[in-house]
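call fold(seq) -> tokens
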Amino acid sequence: MDVLGIDIGGSGIKGAPVDIQAGRLTRERLRIPTPHPAKPEPVAQVVRQIAEHFAWEGPVGITFPGVVTGGVIRTAANLHHSWIGAKTGELRHGATVINDADAAGLAEATFGAARDKSGTVIVLTFGTGIGSAVFVDGVLVPNTELGHLEIRGKDAEHRASDRAREDHDLSWDKWAERVEEYLKHVEMLFSPALFVIGGGVSKKADKFLPHITLDTPIVPATLQNEAGIIGAALTAARSG
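ret:
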């Protein structure tokens, strides 16, 4: 069974049909830059454009970069503030909407680096911000938003996201120092069994992971930047 997964990010919105039994995209993904300002209607228009590109009539799962509870969007740190309090149906009627990092985490827990892992496993996505998905013996604790933990008086994602690396023109090893500081704080709070690092930077894990030293094992995401799309589709299938 194929389900359309759409992953909304601060810089791009991407989607593709997903084989939810195999955990893989069945067609080449389409990526469209996130409109700015990223208000509800322009973002919803891109969602419609992606669905029309694939001539999609079936179930749709969508990620959102913020807290989503009870069909309502509660936070929108990297999109326009007018999303706060909006109903998820504004994205697409009948679609299933989930926090973006939770979707990526579910994909990794089902098909990737967090599969069959016991204890506390934390999947972190580094992109425009830092997203988090926390699992305890395979069960998701939703909407944790650990990218907003405070480090040196700032949201962690303002110092250690991939956008921060680019904005401050940091070398990979200098950025790794910031990531390590952040991860050690999360490690202190949760004593996890495993960290899984996802988002766009997971494709370049060899450039920064060797510079990070923790007590907790740390591995790159297996599904890399496709995890959000796959997790969105998986969530829609499970909710149906």
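The chain has seven helices and 15 strands.
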